[in-house]
Write a structure and sequence with these properties.
Blueprint (H helix, E strand, L loop, with lengths): L11 H19 L4 H15 L22 H36 L6 H15 L8 H19 L5 H12 L6 H18 L7 H9 L7 H12 L21 H13 L10 H14 L4 H16 L8 H24 L15 H10 L4 E3 L2 H11 L4 E2 L12 H8 L5 H8 L3 E4 L4 H7 L4 E6 L4 E5 L7
Parallel strand pairs: 1-2, 1-3
Antiparallel strand pairs: 3-5, 4-5
Helix pairs in contact: 1-3, 1-4, 1-13, 2-3, 2-15, 3-4, 3-5, 3-12, 4-10, 4-12, 4-13, 5-6, 5-7, 5-12, 6-7, 6-8, 7-8, 10-12, 11-12
Length: 469
């Protein structure tokens, strides 16, 4: 008589994450983040010139100005991936980091049943969908997920976990300014240890982690910079859509679903060594005010919801799997809609189609050394293609351009005084969307003429050079 076979256990969560990886890569295939280009250029500069990007070198408006190189190491990683396999390799690296963050946050959720883990992972992926781009922020996604996992291990009694969190900050501070999230989690963990046993050694990991946040070419300035950017933001931050408040729009739906799922799972009743409900609430409120923080709300909600639902009867229901499938289908529909809006997509190699590639070719061949004005979302692309010989007015970094933004907006909107500003800055070329206010103004200005156009832009050149200030 043979023993009955154990029922086949399907790794639903792993299948969900594989589907999410494919969907995220497809989205990166459609949408290329404009910040990627200046990170590629910065990474190239570090690798080839053996110098860190601590001074501005690609604009004619702020050349030589000091900067805080918060993302130099992540720029190197993207450049290395790009050198190995072009844009698909860089995008693939970011997909791995983003999906890895989902997997680690799921592991922080303890021993929840597989159906609810699959549903929670799909919902969190829905929250990350708008941020699924090839960008340096993906490093913070991964490391934040890892820190959530370490917090969970600390809850289980792993004394090494705070030390691991502290040590990782030495890497994280050189990758992205989001290291402050990890430092915040470490501060809470060490603070709770100190309240439990008021001894100096309880704060030792926190002291080490704070020191690690200063192990950066810019020293303590790297620690202060993110605090200034978040809590005392310059006016120009409003130009970055990810730092604007979340409004009642379709893009808010994933976060409403995550909040509802967290409430349904009973996160607000969760009582553990770490204050998971407060973490989810804090990141949710901050994300609603500054949407760039919403991915971390999604990851923390994933971990906390799984902890809360670990012993719930409904967590084993096949309806959870149906819900996960529904979310994946919704993601697929969104991706298909984006692809149709940008059709025809062309081959994978045509990843520059949304940027002024034809104008860049013309400027490289006919206008070497020009001073180019372009929208800030194109500045990174143009400095990647043309720099450092040809320089741009501004690009998407915004640091070190805070004091330049008023003039930039005057020029972009062709407001009174725009001619004087072009003369004062010595702008010799402009690459602009055809219907933009400045393009219409240059069309009627005898000092400028159109020298060519491509699918997305028109290139204007000055008939005579003005003397730069």
């Amino acid at each position: 008589m043979t023993a009955p076979r154990a029922p086949l256990r399907v790794p639903w969560t792993a299948l969900v994450l594989l589907a999410v990886a494919a969907l995220f890569f497809a989205r990166m295939r459609v949408r290329v983040d404009p910040d990627l280009f200046f990170h590629l250029k910065d990474g190239e500069r570090v690798v080839r010139e053996r110098i860190l990007p601590r001074t501005e070198a690609f604009s004619f408006t702020r050349a030589g100005r000091a900067m805080v190189a918060t993302e130099w190491l992540s720029s190197v990683s993207l450049y290395a991936a790009f050198r190995l396999g072009g844009y698909p390799a860089a995008a693939g690296l970011c997909v791995l980091m983003t999906v890895g963050a989902l997997g680690l946050a799921g592991l922080a959720g303890g021993e929840a049943p597989e159906p609810v883990r699959a549903l929670a992972a799909a919902l969190a992926a829905f929250g990350l969908f708008n941020f699924a781009l090839a960008k340096v922020q993906c490093w913070t996604f991964l490391l934040f997920g890892l820190h959530l996992y370490w917090v969970r291990r600390w809850e289980e009694g792993a004394a090494w976990a705070p030390w691991a969190m502290a040590a990782s900050l030495a890497l994280w501070v050189n990758l992205h300014g989001g290291f402050m999230l990890g430092w915040g989690l470490l501060s809470v963990v060490c603070g709770l240890d100190f309240l439990r046993a008021p001894r100096a050694r309880a704060l030792a990991p926190w002291a080490l982690g704070t020191l690690a946040c200063c192990l950066h070419p810019d020293g303590a300035a790297a620690f202060v910079y993110p605090l200034w950017f978040v809590f005392a933001p310059p006016a120009g931050r409003a130009l970055i859509s990810e730092w604007r408040p979340l409004t009642f729009e379709p893009s808010a739906l994933p976060y409403a679903l995550l909040a509802a799922a967290a409430l349904g799972a009973g996160v607000h009743r969760l009582r553990r060594r770490f204050p998971w409900p407060l973490l989810v609430l804090a990141l949710g409120v901050m994300g609603a005010h500054e949407r760039k923080l919403l991915p971390y709300f999604a990851l923390s909600a994933l971990a906390a919801s799984l902890l809360a639902a670990a012993r719930a009867r409904w967590a084993r229901s096949p309806l959870c799997l149906a819900g996960a499938l529904g979310v994946l289908l919704a993601l697929g529909a969104l991706q298909a809609a984006e692809a149709r809006a940008l059709a025809p997509l062309g081959p994978v190699s045509d990843w520059q189609r949304a940027f002024p590639s034809g104008a860049a070719d013309y400027a490289a061949a006919r206008l070497p050394g020009a001073r180019v004005f372009a929208p800030y979302k194109w500045g990174g692309y143009l400095l990647w293609r043309l720099g450092p010989r040809t320089k741009v007015f501004i690009d998407g970094r915004l640091d070190p351009y805070w004091t330049l933004l008023g003039d930039y907006e005057t020029l972009s909107a062709a407001r009174p005084g725009w001619r004087e500003l072009l003369d004062a800055y010595g702008v010799t070329a402009a690459i602009l969307p055809p219907a933009s206010p400045l393009a219409r103004a240059l069309d009627s200005d005898p000092a400028w003429r159109a020298r060519g156009n491509d699918r997305v832009s028109v290139l204007y050149a000055r008939r005579r050079r003005s003397r730069p200030r």
